[in-house]
Please model this.
Amino acid sequence: MSSREDTIDTFLTNNQSKFIQELTELCAQPSVSARKEGVQECAALVASILARHHLDVQLIPTGGSPVVVGRASGGSPQTLLLYNHYDVQPPEPLDLWTTPPYQPTVREGALYARGAEDDKGEFIARLAALEAVRFAHDGKLPCGVTFVVEGEEEIGSPHMAEFVQGHLDLLKSQATIWEGGGISVEGNPGSVLGLRGVLSVEIAVKTMSQDAHSGSAHALPSAAWRLIRVLTSIKDEHEHILVPGFYEHAKPPTDDDLALIDARPDMETWLKETFGVSQFVNDLHGRNLDKAVFNPTCNIQGIVTGYQGQGMKTVIPARAVAKVDFRLVPDQDPKDIFAKLRHYLDQSGFADVSLTWLGAMWPFKAPADNPFVQLTAKTAEAVYGKPYEMMPLVGGSSPVYAFAKPLGNIPVVMAGTGYPNNNAHAPDEHIRLEDFHNGARHIARILDGFASLG
Amino acid sequence: MSSREDTIDTFLTNNQSKFIQELTELCAQPSVSARKEGVQECAALVASILARHHLDVQLIPTGGSPVVVGRASGGSPQTLLLYNHYDVQPPEPLDLWTTPPYQPTVREGALYARGAEDDKGEFIARLAALEAVRFAHDGKLPCGVTFVVEGEEEIGSPHMAEFVQGHLDLLKSQATIWEGGGISVEGNPGSVLGLRGVLSVEIAVKTMSQDAHSGSAHALPSAAWRLIRVLTSIKDEHEHILVPGFYEHAKPPTDDDLALIDARPDMETWLKETFGVSQFVNDLHGRNLDKAVFNPTCNIQGIVTGYQGQGMKTVIPARAVAKVDFRLVPDQDPKDIFAKLRHYLDQSGFADVSLTWLGAMWPFKAPADNPFVQLTAKTAEAVYGKPYEMMPLVGGSSPVYAFAKPLGNIPVVMAGTGYPNNNAHAPDEHIRLEDFHNGARHIARILDGFASLG
Model:
């Protein structure tokens, strides 16, 4: 280890409690974009935190939550863009949290809170890295940095593409570190090269002007049953999506993609233990569980219909609503899928069923041999002492697509603080302090090496 | 009109405001059996109201809500049993009420409140009839009366059969007036001769120990989708129930049954207007809508799974629950149907799916030519000045079966205060003051004529 890396690591160790305090402050502020809860307050807090770390801050309004941008110039003309988000998933169900989601609590070497990992912990770890690099370079940064922290990632980043298009000069950069990333079950660092797109819709059925007594179920039409018939018309029991043309632009995995997955650990046991699953979708096993990421999906986020309380209520529901998301593979296009779904419903006798666009992201896939990708891999292997794993495509989605192409097909990698059991999006979300530390070390090394790539 | 009938009618007119005040007091007391809300308080109030009307009152505990029994002897050894219930359906959705459900309000000639009709209004109308008959007979009743007012009708009367079996002497009577009844769309009085049974169950699916991110939907099993597959395995798109043996004991309608329905008004227009329906189940029309009551049904009362809030949440639900009721025709047996459904799920690969018995009632069908049925018809035609309509079987259920057989196959009729647009079980439930008055007149005439039947 060079003396500069030593300096960085020591700085991060000595100052960890300060950064965890900063993370605690940020996690205590709710910021649920799905219901606009605390979002404005959180944006203001993020702006003040960025300013505290000597970045020039702009709080830029969009049609939804504001985007917070923090910039600093450095010793080289190269600029690295770091993407994070300050919004979080709703914390429900609250009764499954050991400690309340907005009362950040450290126990057994981890900080528990909604957003502790996704994405507030990752954001603060990057600020820690920035401070460490500045300290190791006598108060100056070796390259320019631009933080983009948005507030609508958890609802599909509906304004991000437009925001990037409208601020190309402000965001000009030569590479991007995305949110996410971290280590695998075995502790290996890695990054994903591709992300699926997503289309979220609301499907609503109304069969009557009011609920009716279930004694009339032989005559009066049930919205609950009709919604079920709509849903089963969209996907069969083997997970095949029945909308004509749905798979038209879906690229199958290449042999290289499959080889990368075959080189990775088998996730079956971990998935079984983490989610208490006895049987997977389509009875998949072993690495086929990961390879199935190349299958687009149709997932039901939730259904609301009829009586929701205790006991029973003998009613026929007049209304039924399902929220559904489709995860899309390259080169499927959410707009195309939405149009095909609407057309299919119309053709299938469901013209009366309403279909509402809730949000979408496009799929993305990056080249594995880019120098910045290679820098990320090399520095990660140094930090974690383990081989770097690349995943050609993962199941989730992010607005990577909205940055990479408009900014000149720049490389995008993930380098984060995650580990597989962190309960992101679920009760008892947490970040381990060790992962926070190593994530910061990794980002610091990328910042350190980035200037010399240019 | 005889002078005694004249006396009765005048008494009811002169004292209506007093009885409506009594109904207001009763409706202001919540009594939602589905969640045990105010049930004990309401039982105590019913007991005090019965005592106020000079009945000997017993408040008898059961495994659930208490049953309130009020008795009075009369000039003949004949005793008439009157069944009512003091529990109500949950008032939700609250935002669809014009005035709050527990703030009884009179407007445009009707009293609006949860329970105004079903079944508190009907109960108070019977007490009004009792007072009127007593007044017309110089303070004495011509026959004995026994009021049985239970508190679990809206959750399927789970303790009523056992209660009757345990109190055969207390309940000894020669005929029963059930809850329900009233007039049709055209203003014709009538009664139903048969009621369907009902089996309510909860079907619960658990596929994982916790919700997961929808980015894993290609691998992790969704409880929402699995519940949908369970439900579609139970009933096909043409309303045919697929559980083997389900129709084994279902009696088809007789020619007489169908003739009674053919003699009745066509309900299609009323149903269309009341429920805003454009297409009925199986595209039924005209009197086939009523004849379909001989088809048992499988209705979804409600589904709870996944994210229930605003916006969206990209999760795969780990749990999904449906409450389902089956309406059963004579001679289907809920216990037999429950066993067949469990067996079918086990055989269909759904052995992991939990099936919970929520409640049941057995079907019932009474003879049309019984003298008490004929008395009810004749007095109704006198009160309403219109022909009496008999319905061989209606879609709803009640614990009639639990009384009729154990008490010696006594006749059971309905004679009530209902009209089709009263919104029972729905927001803005109400009772028209005119229906309250005529319902009381009818009951008074039955009481008056009952002694001479014996």
